[in-house]
Amino acid sequence: MNITDEFYRISGVDKIKYIREDTFYDTIIKDIENINRNINVMCYNKLISIEDELEKMTKEINDLFSSIGVENELKDHFNGIKFIIFKRLGNVTKRLEDRKLEFINKNVELEPEYSKDNFLDFDDAKNVVEDQYDQEMKVYEQEIKMRDEYEQARKSISEIKNIQKIITVNLMEQGEQIENIIKKNKNIKKNVDGTVDELKKIKDKRRRSRRMLFILQLCVIFILLFLHFFYCK
For residue 214, is it within any domain? Predict the structure, then answer.
C-alpha cells in the first residue's frame, strides 16, 4: 500500500501533481545513453562513426560547461552534475574502446610462423607458401567466377522481365485494337442492316404506288370507254 496516497485519501487533501521538466543535463545524459546503446552494432565502420560522434559530443559538453557561470552556493551542485556526466562519458568511451578491440582481435588472423625445425630446407617452406597462395588464388578466382555468373544471371533475368513487360504491353494494345475493330464492325453492321431495312421500305412503297397508279389508270380507261359508248349511242 502506498502510505502517501492513503494519507491523501483519509485527510481529503488534494494531491499536488508535480511534473518535472527535462533540464539541459537530462538531455545530455539521454544522448550519452543513446550512444551507449548504439555500441552494440556488429559493424566496425559503424563503431568508428560512433567514436566520431562521441568525440564531437564530448567537445560540445566541455564548451557548454566552460561557458556556464554559477553562484557560489550552487557550485557544489553544478560540479556534481559535471562529475556524473563526465563519468558516464568515460564509461561509454571505455566500452567503445573495448568493443573496437573485440573486433580487431576477432578479425585479424596472423600467418603461422615457420622455423627451421618445421622444414628440411628453405625450398620446403617456399613450396608450402606457394601451395597456400595457389589455394587462396583458386578460392578467390572461384568467388569472382560465382559473382560474374550471378551478375550474368541477374542481367538475363532483368532482360527477360523487360521482354515480358514489352510483350504484355503489346498484347494489351492489340487487345484494345481488336476490341475497337469489333465495335466498329458492329456499328457498320447496324448501319448496313438499317440501310437494308430502309431500302426494303422504299421498295414496298414503290410497289404500292405502282399498284395504285395501275388501278387509277384502269379506272380512267373504264370511264373513258363508258363515256365513249354512252355518247356514241
Answer: no
Biggest distance spanned by C-alpha atoms of the chain: 169
C-beta neighbour count of 22 within 10 angstroms: 9
For the chain, 233 residues long, the average pLDDT of each consecutive 10-residue run is 54 51 78 88 84 90 85 83 88 89 66 49 61 72 74 78 80 77 74 73 79 83 77 66
- Residue 25: inside a domain, yes or no? yes
Phi, psi of 15 (to 5 degrees): -75, 130
Q: Is residue 67 part of a domain?
A: yes
Q: Which amino acid is at 191?
A: N
Assigned C-alpha cell, 39: 555500441
Domain for residue 78, yes or no? yes
* Distance spanning both ends of the chain, measured CA to CA: 149
Please state, in angstroms and rounded to a whole number, the distance separating the CA atoms of residues 74 and 30.
23
For the entire predicted model, the pTM comes to 0.38
- For residue 52, give its domain range: 3-107
Task: Name the domain count of the chain.
Answer: 1
CA 187, distance to chain mean position in Å, is: 47
